[in-house]
Design a protein that fits this description.
Order of helices and strands: HHEEEEEHEEEHHEEEH
Distance between the termini: 40 Å
Largest sheet: 6 strands, mixed
Shape: globular
Length: about 240
């Protein structure tokens, strides 16, 4: 019998939410945890499989540790972690919806698409010589260290479509600064591509995705839209 992936993950999140509220002394809302947008089937599947295979491990407070996250550095001696729940101050904790999809996407790259953990970097520290952080969610590198795929995760299909529209507009315009851009929210993704030149840009939301093959010619970028991210064998052969 096929597992009810979305139902199973929702129960897990509701249980963790209730336990977290109890641990930090916050009452659990009568409505329980608000999950918006609703969990996708494939998203839920690879989130759960990622936990079951040990790709990432959430603690009782919703902090996630994983070898997919950047290791400690000289500047920060602590292992980087990501959060499933935000609870810096009242009211009760809330779900960091995008984090669920980020972890699921990283898990699917390994379990479904055949990449190794050494090829994947979740929440990388991407800075150039201008000390500008681009906020890319996941990087996929070849065994030789070549940047193959930049992955950006959005919490909903609406945000995904806006990212695609904004990135396409920035690429069409060419080199320009963020303070001179009509799409400042997603402009850093364009700048990331212009600076690091990933071969592919993969935009993901719960149970939906769009992939671009990025073509660079001097200072211009021409994104060619594909139906989805090509298989690992094709990416490594290109």
């Amino acid at each position: 019998m096929e597992r009810d992936w979305a139902g199973e993950l929702e129960r897990w999140l509701q249980d963790r939410f209730a336990a977290l509220c109890d641990a930090i002394g916050q009452p659990v809302p009568l409505s329980g945890l608000r999950i918006n947008p609703s969990l996708g089937i494939e998203e839920s599947k690879y989130f759960l499989l990622g936990m079951e295979t040990g790709l990432f491990l959430p603690d009782e407070f919703g902090y996630v540790q994983s070898e997919l996250l950047p290791p400690p550095s000289r500047e920060n001696m602590r292992q980087k972690m990501c959060q499933i729940f935000w609870y810096d101050h009242p009211p009760p904790p809330r779900l960091f919806r995008e984090c669920v999809c980020q972890l699921s996407t990283a898990s699917s790259l390994i379990i479904q698409r055949g990449w190794l953990t050494s090829h994947i970097l979740l929440e990388p520290d991407c800075k150039d010589d201008r000390d500008m952080s681009y906020g890319i969610d996941i990087l996929v590198k070849s065994p030789a260290g070549q940047l193959l795929v930049a992955v950006e995760v959005k919490r909903s299909a609406v945000e995904l479509q806006k990212l695609i529209t904004d990135l396409s507009a920035c690429c069409k315009r060419g080199a320009h600064a963020k303070d001179d851009c009509g799409f400042p929210q997603n402009h850093p993704k364009y700048e990331f591509c212009a600076f690091y030149k990933p071969a592919y840009f993969w935009a993901v939301a719960p149970d939906s995705d769009v992939c671009f093959r990025m073509k660079y010619d001097g200072g211009s970028i021409e994104p060619e839209q594909l139906t989805s991210l090509p298989p690992r064998s094709r990416l490594e052969a290109s």
